[in-house]
Each structure stands twice: as C-alpha cells, then as structure tokens.
Amino acid sequence: MILFTPIFLYYFGYNYYLIATEKFLKKNDANSIYFAIKKSKKTTNKKKIIISDSMGGQLFPVSKKYDSIYTLSTTAPASLVGSYILIKNLLKRNNLKGRTIYYIAHPTSLSYDLREPHTYNHFIKPFFLSDNYKYISSTADSLLRFWPFLHAAQLPFVKTTNWQPEFEFKKDDRIQISKLYLEYFKKIILLSKEEKFDFFVLMPFLQEKEKNESYLKIKEQVAQHKLDNIFSKYFEKTPFLASKFFIENDMHYNSKNLNLIDEKLLFQLLN
Length: 271
Prior knowledge:
The protein has 10 helices and 6 strands; from the N terminus they run ααβαβαβααααββαβα. β1, α3 (54-59) and β2 form a beta-alpha-beta unit. By secondary structure, it is of the alpha/beta class. It has one domain (4-198). The chain has helices at residues 4-20, 31-40, 54-59, 79-93, 119-127, 138-144, 156-159, 179-195, 216-224, 263-268; strands at residues 48-52, 69-71, 100-104, 198-202, 206-207, 240-241. The longest helix is centred in the N-terminal third of the chain and has 17 residues, at 4-20. The strands form 2 sheets. The chain has a 4-stranded parallel sheet with strand order 2-1-3-4. The radius of gyration is 19 Å and the shape is globular.
C-alpha cells in the first residue's frame, strides 16, 4: 500500500493539473460545454444570446464570434437545466434587460430529462457542482440520484476522461416535452420577467422527410402549460433542408455542407 501511495498522489496531482490548466479539454467530448460555461461568466454587450442542443450548436458554434450574437450553445444531454445555469451565470456579470435569449432545439431534445447516454459527461461533470446546487430543482436532483458514482464525477482522474458508469438509460422515445423541461421553461419565463429579457424557443433546420411530422403532443403541452408565447416562433415557417445537409440516418448536420447554408437564411432563424 505504501509503495502505491506516491503513484496515486502523482496520478491525482497530474489530473488536477490537467483540470487547472484545462489541458484535459483537448480530447474531451464535452469540450464545447466547458467553453460555454467559461463564456457565460464573462461580460457581453451582444443583444442576441443563444442556448441550444447540439443541432443549434452546429448552426451557431459556441467558439464562433458574431457581431450581434453571443453563443452559449451546448448539447441536448447538457439539458435545459445546464442552459438555465448558463443564464444564471450570465446574469451575475450582465444586465440582460432588453435582450433576447433563444433556445434552439430539435423537438426530440425537448424530451430529455437527465437520463440520456451522455448525461454523465455533458451535465454531471461540468454542471453538478456545489456552486450550482441552488439552481438544480428537487425534480432534477431526484433524477440525478439514479446515477451511480454521481459525486465521483468531480474526482480529477474521472473528470479528465470521457468515462461514464453503466446506466439504464431512458427508453421512452416519445416526442414530447419532459416534466423536467416544462419546469425549467417556466423557471426561465419567470427569470425573463424579473430581468426583463425576451425568451423564445426556436426550431433548427429540419430534414425534408420531417415535413409530415405534426408534433401534436408538444403543441398540446404548450397550450396546456401556457407556453404559447415562448413557442410562438417554434412551428412558424419551419425551415427544411435537403438530405445532403444531414448525416445519413442521423438528425445532425453534415459539417462539410454546413457552409453551403445561406448566412441570411441562418440569421432569419432569429427574426
């Protein structure tokens, strides 16, 4: 045991060094999420702010600089809970009065509830920290408690890797707004009223084959929970793109063809 102690201390210290210097992010699949967290703690005078799932993140990358847009794009597994924390971070350094926050997310992303394949790496590791506990509702906390090694996620030799424990992921794939998201949409609406900013949920570009989708359950929930205002632009003039813009058998965009999208069409999403 004594022989292994120096090795353990070195390994622990080295991984702590990787975290402190952010060198672990080079090969981390949640790289963009950590970058969004870092950006959310800075000041900005941009009038349009974007939070999103990974599709929104492809359209408006968190690393890209815009004249009037500030992107805090993440991924669906980072969840609306993570996006809410980003907004709270932003409010510590910025007055958001008169600005607009857009949440760009595919309809399937609205069903997420912290039980997805990448939740451990995309939410628990970057967001489940003591400073953020006050933003995590009892509903969110109860869902997170199902995860094994929940607090081990912050150990340096766990956090610096893409490892996550085995978990029985959610199998319900119905397209609807999860109870967790309904709760956090209402939290953001309340926050928008308090801080006097506008908030809208937007649809990213969809594939042409999705034209026949009606999303009736989502529309029903929007009406039932009085979310009409924030979803007022979601189903209006849904933009569809040809299959060449998407990865085969995947909802995500083909990165090679993303630059072919007319920039004017891209910015029309925010109008």
